[in-house]
Amino acid sequence: MAVYRRSRRHRFFLVLLALTSVTVLTLDYRGGGDGALESVRGTARDAFAPLQSAAEWAFSPIAGFFGSIGDFGDLRSENARLRRQLDEARAEAIRGADADRERQGLLQLQGLDYAGGLDSVPARVVSNAPTNFQLTVTIDRGTDARIDVGMPVVTSAGLVGRVTEASKVRSTVLLITDPQSNVGVRLANSGEPGVVRGGGTRNPLAVDLITTEVPVTIGEPVVTSGLERGLFPAQIPVGRVLSTSAPPGALQKEIQVDPSVDLVRLEFVRVLLWTPNP
Q: I need a surface site. Which of 1, 109, 198, 276 has the fewest CB within 10 A?
């Protein structure tokens, strides 16, 4: 019970002190600043100084916390802005590199020394059908650009294939690696004619009709023959001999040719405005 009374006395004292402070502050607002009243006000300020300091100490971290929230929000916005700028710079660098690569690809198509002055139309590959049953690509030019079925398609490296379908703004090109493709060729060293047939994606081309007596060397260039009624004009690079052998009893050599054009990564081509003689 004694503890209870002491607790009640302490609360009474605190309430009385609070009321006194309110009264003093009210008088301070209304009255002047001298005499006995000023002494009472000074005593009250001194009495409340420890409580005021404790309150300021307790609430200052809270004020700092809310202030830091605003600073954190500004920092996050600034970081987001910097990230956007960095992403934009990276995208611009990638676009610049891609545009430079495209310019180089188009420039390479300008020098088709083997084309013999034939007119040609540049085109971009827009889709492909990379299966072993049908190896074709679609280009973004068609009959509106004077392209017709049967026209050869090339790059600066050599032969790609020939146009098999043509609409007003699109054409389908059968690649020389398609199993249904046959190209009349000639071995550069001996001049011996033969026929190259497709073997599928990423597979070498096979050469037929080269007899076992004909000397063939590894790395020997193979070009289109340009024979009468052939599907291609003469002297277009097809590839180089990758391997050659003459099995016992065979009538012709087994020759494999590595295509001169990377037919898996085609992007830009030229269509030669040339059609085979009927």
A: 1
